[in-house]
Amino acid sequence: MKKVMATGTFDLLHPGHGIYLNEAKKLGGKDAKLYVVIARDSTVEKRKRYPIVGEQQRLELVKMIKGVDEAYLGNENGDFLKIVEEINPDIIAIGADQRHDITKLQKAINKRGLKAKVERVKAYHNAELDSSCKIIKKIKKMDFKGKINDNCD
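Now predict its structure.
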């Protein structure tokens, strides 16, 4: 059984997240286990992004996704490889739209003496709202003209 690790913010879940996680798990073969690491709010905010949904709720949602075997919050101490050491995956799956330098990440993993191989998922859900940022931008542009259901107590 191979362990596959996938990482991300997973803010405003959409089909692209599901495709990424399904494809990540496939990298490990038939009996793979998928471990998902959700970025901490503080980590995301360092990149000048601000999650709409808090880290605990994002963690809960990811745990509910079919195919996810275990999910964790990432480390806040700046050592992003610490969780990799703890989970000890065979494969680290990078999403098709994630901006990680695979070569640089693989070198850091090797330098730490870890066995994980970094692989990029190729499948991508290409749609109008295929990222959390696009969903947020669309909401900001919308003119609801009194159509908002404000009966949300």
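The beta strands are 3-8, 33-38, 70-73, 91-94, 117-120.
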